[in-house]
Amino acid sequence: MDSVAGRAWISGEHSGEYCSKLQNRFDAFIYREVTPAIRRDCQAENMEIVAAGASIGAFNAVATVCRHPDAFRLAIAMSGTYDLSKYLEGRFNEDFYFSSPLHFLPDLEGPLLEALQKRMILMPTGEGDYEDIGESWRMARVLGAKRIPNRVDLWGRDYHHNWNTWREMLPKYLGEHA
């Protein structure tokens, strides 16, 4: 899930407040426009969708499943970057809180959590150049504390933070969870 919001976060050109609002607009676009379009195209009105992404796209995949378990059954979050708070310049805001699973999941209760506990978050990650497996483990701890099924798969030092790695990962997990 590459996104305008993801590009805004990493560009360094916008405030954390702007990026947080843009992130929530991106989420609304995915849920209100893309999700129904996928279902129409597949002629499956209640189809449960798989969200996938790499790097900051992994954040989007996890956030999409966590916010919308009614429509998304699985996140394949490759080489994830899950803590975007470093882009807030110390100015935490409500839009950010509700867009960031690391931040809103610890307080989540009720029907949304119950639905999410029936979903799966896969977090494959390499251990090569520019990978930060600590991000995946931190996300896994937050998910696990809420009994949300998840798994971190380590791919080893030969797998770097790049498209060659993700091109190998994605078909494997889609094949296993189709």
Write structural notes for this entry.
- With 178 residues, the chain is of the alpha/beta class.
- The chain has one domain: Alpha/Beta hydrolase fold, catalytic domain (Rossmann fold, 3-Layer(aba) Sandwich).
- 51% of the residues lie in helices and 13% in strands.
- It is built from eight helices and four strands, in the order H-H-E-H-E-H-H-H-E-H-E-H.
- The chain has helices at 4-11, 16-42, 56-67, 94-99, 101-104, 111-116, 133-145, 163-177, and strands spanning 49-54, 72-78, 120-125, 150-154.
- Strands 1-2-3-4 form a four-stranded parallel beta sheet, sandwiched between helices.
- Strand 3 (120-125), helix 7 and strand 4 form a beta-alpha-beta unit.
- Helix 1 (4-11) runs antiparallel to helix 2 (16-42).
- The two termini are 18 Å apart.
